[in-house]
Amino acid sequence: MSKKGTIKKFYRNNRIYCILMMVSFLCILLLGGSVLVYFIHQAAGDSYGVRLEGVKTEEVEKDVNAIKDWYSNKEGIIKSNVRIQGKIVYVEFEVDASVSNETIQGIATSSLEVISDYTKDTCDIQFIVNRKDMGSYFGSKGRGKTVISWANYNLNQDKAEQ
């Protein structure tokens, strides 16, 4: 018996099994193809999606450069770094351990005067203050808000310094 004859005989004897296997194979191919298309589509798009549409990046960049200059010229700041990630402007600076929390808050608040109203209304601003031999001090200002909210504020830490 030839090969054609054995395949025909197998198909006739196991017709339902063969049809189910072909349907299963087709489903697996469709499922695998849809998974590939999904992940390729995810990787090809912008990581922020449409969240950054309408944001004037040139104006925000100009403000970031102004903040960098302001912190580099500010007395009492050891080093500073300003960066943008999405719609968040991260302002990180280091001060001596002798600088009080009120002074840090004053520095951060006065730095907001350098930023345009557009950036204040479009982006969140995060302040990360490092003090030598002490923990970090965090503050954040939401877009459209006028007040900086501070975390890790410890009154005992300030009194121990004096």
Give the amount of beta strand, in percent. Answer: 15-25%
What is the CATH architecture descriptor of the largest domain?
A: Orthogonal Bundle
Q: What spatial form do the alpha-carbon principal axes imply?
A: rod-shaped
CATH class value of the largest domain: Mainly Alpha
Taken together, the total number of domains comes to 2
DSSP strand count: 5
Structural class: alpha+beta
**Can you count the helices?**
6
* CA distance, first residue to last residue: 101 Å
- Largest sheet at a glance? 5 strands, mixed
CATH fold-level assignment of the largest domain: Helix Hairpins
Rounded mean pLDDT is 81
Please give the order of strands in the largest beta sheet. 1-2-3-4-5
Low-confidence stretches: 157-162
Task: Output the helix-strand order.
Answer: HHHEEHHEEEH
